[in-house]
């Protein structure tokens, strides 16, 4: 059974999904691929893991780096999981490029190159927004690229983390 609860963030409503003990999804209302890991049968329930995740979100939206991570259930393809695992290592207040992730995956797999576009697809399908920080991924020249939660949210999240991206300056946001 999948369980959900709602969270109201400064950037809009969110839905948190769980298998009862781990977080399986965290989406902004209306974001691309919303509910991608939700089973057809789910119900609202107050769970300890939701309380912990809401506490994480409260700390995060206060502009601080949470010093804990709720337990995560990343049900996806092995490639996407490898990308998401890299995202989990990107520190609060820092960014990484699609190309850097691609190079890291290529190195892990012992191959010469990996497509940055394939990485972009995996980043875009991240089902656990914010905690798996896909908003910290930028283009090779520091340019902002898409964000499933909306580019406006990405900009606000980067500003909140005090990331001085040249892209933010170039775009006059």
Brief synopsis:
The protein is α/β, with parallel strands linked by helices and 173 residues long. The chain has helices at 48-61, 78-87, 98-109, 116-124, 151-160, 166-170; strands spanning 2-9, 12-18, 23-28, 42-44, 96-97, 137-138.
Your description of this structure?
This protein has 173 residues and is of the alpha/beta class. The chain has 2 domains: 2-61, 2-Layer Sandwich (Double Stranded RNA Binding Domain), CATH 3.30.160; 78-170, Orthogonal Bundle (Arc Repressor Mutant, subunit A). The protein is 35% helix and 16% strand. The protein has helices at residues 48-61, 78-87, 98-109, 116-124, 151-160, 166-170; strands at residues 2-9, 12-18, 23-28, 42-44, 96-97, 137-138. It has a 4-stranded mixed β-sheet, with helices on one face. Strands 5-6 form a two-stranded parallel sheet. A hairpin with a 4-residue loop joins strand 2 (12-18) and strand 3. Helix 2 packs across helix 3 and helix 3 crosses helix 4 (116-124). It is globular, with a radius of gyration of 16 Å.
